[in-house]
Fold each of these.
Amino acid sequence: MLAIRAARAFDGQELRPDGAVVFVDDGRIVGVEAPGAALPDGVELIDVPNGTLLPGLVNAHVHLCGDSDNGALERLPELSADQLHAVIETALARQLASGVTTLRDLGDDRWAVVDRRDRAGPNHGPHIVASGPPITSVGGHCWMMGGEVAGEDALRAAVRERAERRVDVVKVMASGGTMTPGTDITACQFTLEELRCVVEEAHGLGLPVTAHAHPLAAVEQAVDAGVDGIEHCTCLTADGVELSEDLMRRLREREVVVCPTLGKAPDTVLSPRLLEVLARFGMSFEGRQKLYAAVLAAGAQVISGDDAGISQGKRHGFFPEAVLDLVAGGAPVTDALTSATSSAARACGVGDRKGRLRAGFDADLLVVDGDVGADPTALRSVVMVLVGGAPVVDNRS
């Protein structure tokens, strides 16, 4: 048996300022006690007196096939199978080093991530929740990943193919995107009836659906179609960003999970394409931080995912920045941390065993240096990461 003791803890929903000791056996948490709890004979103790103990982070939007350089998605067709495998392994290692023990991949190429998920053994890096190639229109956003379809019959067939390959979630591109030249970020890629086909087929097969949507029209269309989640949810209109009280109400009532894909590397230099989009719609990163903190405060379900892998500004390994962006926008630290632990785990379909410090849950744990409650930037200072109770990152001197 192993015990990890820290001066402070966050249990996935609440801060525990007096700390905790977590007992681990056979890959699972078997007890969460006050830090002064007696240790049974023979228990190995990892003591971090200046740290904070948390559940391993859950990054709800990544692209493991992306090599973290500008133009990553456009170059995918040029990569050999071996090169693609190497990119995925590097991405997983960087995610793990930043404290991520579960991630949801929403942009597979050639089913490489699904195959990697199926090859994973116990305690072998982050747990992967996989969508396969996103479903998109012909020539649409991320067409290079192989998910182009046209017509309701083809959409239903695409969903069935994903079910046969045992994906965990269906991703559909409801609008264009900034990372695919030639697509219109403000345009819907499918009709409402076509999106409903995707949702109906997926739900009939027991699969949730999340939709990439930047314009307000696509966000509203996705909500009307009955999707379970919306990625980005930028709500662009000709007059700028518009997220009405009515839409907020519908997101709450229909329990649609919003993943705003905040977070960027601190040294980010914005590409001309992205600068053009920001200027065109009067957007700023600070404005987006405030917007999604307000969405969270209004009672909608907001989870954290950083869109890692698609560019230098969205490199793998900087997921804590997505949490810090919510805090910078005005969200309470506890809510921001929840968005990257228990809430994200629930949205990714693993909330019954990940994202909490609770007996019976997987012993996927993160220890950081400092007091996260008082200074959330402590998330950047990873001391240890454990997957299934096994230390896989150890930065102790």
Amino acid sequence: MRILLTGGSGDLGTALAPLLTQHGHQVSILDPISPTFDCHDYHPGSVLDLESLLMVSAGIDVVIHIAAWHGIHEASQLKTQQEFWTLNVMGTKRVSEIWAAGVFPSLIHISSSSVFKTTGYYGFTKRLAEQIITNTAKTHGLQSITLRPRGFIPPWNREVYASFTEWARYFWQGAVHIQDMVPAVQKALSSLASVEPGSNPRLIVDRYAEFSQDELDNWDKHGPGTSFSEKFPEYAFVADMAELPIQLKPKTYDISETHDLLGYEPQYSLERMLEELREVIAS
């Protein structure tokens, strides 16, 4: 299968493209930044450049549309609202226009769980991007899947996280490991052919949830930090040393629809994170 990754030189593309290649797919990248890995075809450029987009999309079977500014760019004020609008909304509109014109047949859209947030400009632009994809799929009877992942910037990205410990503090409150995000995209790719044209299912991608709904509803009822200590007593020292915000109730989403449609089963858990954190502290 011939696959184009827009914004494919970032974290997700870096993790995803080599695996797709190993499975026999021909992977092309459209990104202003050169990839750090070998790919079938790299094109320096942006989804905002219609000429480049048309050229690299010709003959492609599936576009995996990743290109976007992310929530971290909003939190750190690295990007303006105009920049979010231009790439996240207008860039998606460009992709959808050539999709509607029949340049390529199928699309996987990487959205975000931030579409559920009522504040923040990033989430607003991702909601609009989803609406563009959904309307295009419905109007033209096209096959697509939209994935709504939690934050998946990996712990080794030192431009965002100074250390594994810093990443762990973020992961505790709610995120998905990129090691789970990659198979979610692969499963979406395998499931595209069975998706009803025009339906564009929108699927949450979250981590494995250790805490039951009852445990979350009764969070720390015996005092601050008790829910953590009752669940993970062997990691109390680790949490203290790393200054994990264990008094904050972690948030998880219902991923039953993602499981039913894709067979998605996340593997990376809070316990796995705690075990790795213990190894980091011990070293």
Amino acid sequence: MATYIAKGALVTNPSANNIGSAQFVYCVATSTAQTVIVKDVDTNTLGEIYLALAGDSVCVEKAPSDTITLSAGKVSAVGSPRS
């Protein structure tokens, strides 16, 4: 189990949100078959991560200006104990 430091408010169902310019974002699906979409400032898709089940989670590293979309989920800015 990983350890994270909370660095911001919880965001529900983010859409093209930079999550407070966070570098690391913890994402949890609240419904089945969700995709975390990461886009750059020019709205180019940088990557997608599939979360198959409600409760599936992933920690995404991104640039501060990159955005996260997760249509049925909750996300939060996080840091590691070393940051």
